[in-house]
Design goal:
Shape: rod-shaped
Helix content: over 70%
Radius of gyration: 56 Å
Oligomer: single chain
Distance between the termini: 143 Å
Length: about 170
C-alpha cells in the first residue's frame, strides 16, 4: 500500500532522480522570473525614458501642426476681413450715391454746394468792404442803428388766421 518514507529521504530522492520535462519548464519559468526581477528596474527605467522621448516628439509634432493651423486660420481670417471690408466699402459708396441722388431730386444742396456758396459770400463781403469808403470813427453808434432801422423795410404784422385762432 503506502510506502513509508521519511521526509529527508524524499528530498534526496528528488534531487538525485531525473527531472520530468514539466518540472524543467517550471524551473525555466522561475529562472526567467528571477532574471526579470533583476532586470526589472532597468527595463522599467528604459521604458520610462522611451515614453518621455515619445511624448516630447509627439508634443513637438502637435506644436508644429498647431502653428501651421494657426497660420492658416490667420491667413483665412485676413482674406475674409479684406473681402468683407471691400464689400462694405462698395455698399457704403452705393448707399452714398443713392442718398445723394435722392437729395438732388428733392433740391437739397450738397456739402460741396454749401462750401461753394460760402466761398462766394466771403468773396462778395471782401469786395463790399473794399468798395465802401472808410466810415469816420468819431460817429456814434446810435445814429448808425437808427439809419439801419430806417433802411430796412417794415413788415406788416400777419393777422391771426382762422386756423390758428381755432387751434388756440
Amino acid at each position: 500500500m503506502a510506502k513509508s518514507s521519511t521526509p529527508s529521504s524524499e528530498a534526496t530522492q528528488a534531487t538525485d532522480a531525473p527531472k520530468a520535462p514539466s518540472q524543467e519548464v517550471w524551473l525555466a519559468g522561475l529562472g526567467a522570473l528571477a532574471q526579470a526581477q533583476a532586470r526589472g528596474t532597468q527595463a522599467f527605467e528604459s521604458l520610462v525614458s522611451d515614453g518621455l522621448a515619445f511624448q516630447r516628439k509627439s508634443q513637438a509634432q502637435a506644436q508644429a501642426r498647431l502653428h501651421e493651423a494657426t497660420a492658416h486660420l490667420t491667413h483665412l481670417a485676413q482674406d475674409f476681413g479684406q473681402q468683407a471690408s471691400g464689400r462694405v466699402d462698395k455698399l457704403e459708396h452705393l448707399f452714398e450715391d443713392r442718398v445723394a441722388k435722392a437729395l438732388h431730386r428733392l433740391g437739397i444742396p450738397t456739402l460741396q454746394d454749401m462750401q461753394v456758396l460760402q466761398a462766394r459770400i466771403h468773396a462778395l463781403e471782401a469786395q463790399l468792404a473794399q468798395s465802401q469808403p472808410a466810415a469816420p470813427k468819431t460817429s456814434s453808434k446810435a445814429p448808425a442803428k437808427t439809419a439801419a432801422k430806417a433802411a430796412t423795410p417794415k413788415r406788416a404784422k400777419p393777422s391771426a388766421s382762422p386756423a390758428k385762432t381755432k387751434a388756440h
